[in-house]
Every structure is written in structure tokens, then in C-alpha cells.
Design a protein that fits this description.
By secondary structure, the chain is α+β, with helices and mostly antiparallel strands. The chain has one domain. Helices cover 43% and strands 24% of the residues. The chain is built from three helices and three strands. It has a three-stranded antiparallel β-sheet. The chain is elongated, with a radius of gyration of 16 Å.
């Protein structure tokens, strides 16, 4: 089940016009996420759904171990959100096997 959340490429960023304000200026919305086998998924949704899928596949303990390792050894991860995303990408790509 976790394989359907594997990113096909790097993170995607989109900016789309969703309307105009009273002065006629464009109102834009920024979107970032991943293109996965199950479609485009927004970042926050991807983290939540991939975490649920990892636990359902019985990989919850391994995910926690990767998060702990990432907190201690990856100085470029500045907050918990970054740690979670990095750990999920490592888990899905099976980087822990190397």
C-alpha cells in the first residue's frame, strides 16, 4: 500500500490564478506536493496518508527509528515537519536497506 505514495520526481510547486480582487489584481494560490502513482497529492496530505499507509503495512516502528536517526544526524532538517517528510521518503525509497 505504501508504494502508491512513492514520489515519481522531486517536489512540485504550482501557482494558479483563482480570481481577481476589487482592484483587478490577480489572486494566486500556491500548491506544493508530489506526483505519485495515485495522482498529485498536496504535501500535508501526502505526509498524513503515507504515515497511515506505513503503519498499516507494519512499518511504523521502522519509520520511528528513521525519524529518530534523522533528528540526531541530519542538521539540515530544521523542524519536525521536515523530519517526518525526510523519514517517509527514506522509508518509501527503501534507503534504509543501503
Amino acid at each position: 500500500m505504501l508504494e502508491k505514495y512513492e514520489p515519481k520526481s522531486a517536489r512540485l510547486f504550482f501557482c494558479e490564478t483563482i480570481g481577481k480582487d476589487a482592484a483587478g489584481r490577480k489572486i494566486t494560490q500556491i500548491w506544493q506536493g508530489y506526483d505519485t502513482p495515485s495522482g498529485r497529492i498536496e504535501m500535508g496530505t501526502w505526509v498524513k496518508e503515507a504515515t497511515v499507509a506505513a503503519v498499516a503495512d507494519g512499518l511504523g516502528d521502522l519509520l520511528d527509528q528513521i525519524k529518530e536517526y534523522s533528528r540526531k544526524n541530519c542538521a539540515w532538517l530544521h523542524n519536525e515537519k521536515d523530519v517526518e517528510e525526510h523519514a517517509l521518503r527514506c522509508l518509501i525509497s527503501k534507503a534504509y536497506e543501503h
